[in-house]
Amino acid sequence: MNLRREIDEIDALILERLQREGRVTQSALSSSVGRSVPAISARIRRLEEDGIILGFHAALDPKRLRHDVTAFVSVSLRRRQDVPRFLESLRGIREVLEIHAIADEKTHLLKLRTENTSRLERLLRMMEKQMGIERISASIVLSTHRETQRIPICPDLRPSRPPLPVNVAAGE
User: Fold this and answer.
1) Do residues 114 and 102 touch, judged by C-beta distance below 8 A?
2) pLDDT tens digits, residue range 93-152?
3) Helix, strand, coil % (nearest 5) of the chain?
4) How confident is the model over 63-100, as pLDDT tens digits?
5) Candidates 1.20.1250.20, 2.60.120.330, 1.10.10.10, 3.10.20.90; correct CATH number of 9-58?
6) pTM, whole model, 2 decimals?
7) 69-140 belongs to CATH 3.30.70.920
8) Number of H helices and number of E strands within the chain?
9) Would you list the domain boundaries of the chain?
10) Are β-strands 108-114 and 69-77 bridged in parallel, bridged antiparallel, or unpaired?
11) Which residues, 6+ apart, have CB-to-CB distance to 98 below 8 Å?
């Protein structure tokens, strides 16, 4: 994995399009960025190998899957030594979607999604008893106006000109 790899305008176009439309064909990408299908395929493979593209996922509607309650949970651990055990314990809880170490009096911020508040309450009580937690508080989301996994692509990498036509013979 190349951690220092720079992305160029073409990579930026590919990444923006894949984030918007993960099922776009390489042929459609080829047309929109002005490169051949083999060149697009090679770039996507390189972006995956370099760890820039982490995977391709379906976006699911949590409410349709009966996960109606979203909560952000702030946690303070009793001791720093409890962090590895705490993180390992969270790994087995499918409702924990995100775990963030934070710079605050609290040590971690979690995002949970559960089927109901009863399940959320049971999880919070279990976490408090078993994981070395000193303080725990939850903020329950009433409504979500924006939620995305899209990463903004650096403005200086966005093309300043329209893409060139595809030159299949040149391979790029």
Assistant:
1) no
2) 999 999 999 998 889 999 999 999 999 999 999 998 888 899 999 999 999 999 988 898
3) 35, 15, 45
4) 999 999 999 999 999 888 889 999 999 999 999 999 99
5) 1.10.10.10
6) 0.78
7) yes
8) 5, 4
9) 9-58, 69-140
10) antiparallel
11) 109, 110, 111
